[in-house]
Model the fold of this input.
Amino acid sequence: MSDVVVTRENAMRVVVVGASKKVERYSNMALKRLAAAGHEVLPFNPALDEIDGIPVYRELSAIPLPVDTVTLYVGPAVLRDIGDGILALKPRRIISNPGTESPEFAAKARELGIDYQEACTLVLLSTNQF
Done:
């Protein structure tokens, strides 16, 4: 587990795109690990109202700003439909978890000055690199 102590000063607002209620899904694991670490988690999934008591955003435009990190758990096909909404959040960083990679989306993010990383949120958390 992580040795990094998250305080009010270094806690991040993290949008989990593709958040799921299914405990076996990596998005669910990431949501729980991020919250347990003290980060403010904002799950996004148009089909859900809540996950374990955490309200889920059904529209990207409803997510409060500023956003520190967006972590992606949707495939490139879904990303094509919602990518502009994600970029409109103007996050400092986007993490493209395995299976979500999109060179086109990465290029758009980088053009806007957004740090775009192909990485695994769970590994980043486990290795104190989040």
About this structure: The helical segments are 26-36, 76-88, 103-111, 121-126. The chain has a mean pLDDT of 93.
